[in-house]
Amino acid sequence: MPVRTELLARVTEDVLDPNDALSFVADPRAGGTVLFVGTVRDHSGPERVTGLDYEAWEERAQAALEGIGEKMFDRWPICRAMLTHRVGELEVGQVSVVVCCSAPHRAEAFEAARFGIEQVKRDAPIWKKEHLETGEARWVAGS
Fold it and tell me: Is the pTM here over 0.85, yes or no?
């Protein structure tokens, strides 16, 4: 569980609603809020994708998201932050990851949110398997 109440980080099988993140990070001290929403796209290079399976080492992934959130608070004067990643089977167009934060000024919110999603993609032990239109499936290295 995160140390601070201003941070919500979770790995879940539940559908992600970006409005939940916007509600969580709302703060009267904030002049800017940035919301990043990652969705399942219909292609990977030239190949057509029909869906993704996300798997995670859940305890470590949860700890990674919390640690990334803490780093966001350490580096920028943000007010509140939420980092969530979905696991399980997702269809094209569904939300797979949400990073949202509020800060007194827009530059801080943009920088912290960008850092958050880049660190999630780099450090969280979450893997994806692409299901292709050809019927094949393959694990994809993180980015």
Answer: yes
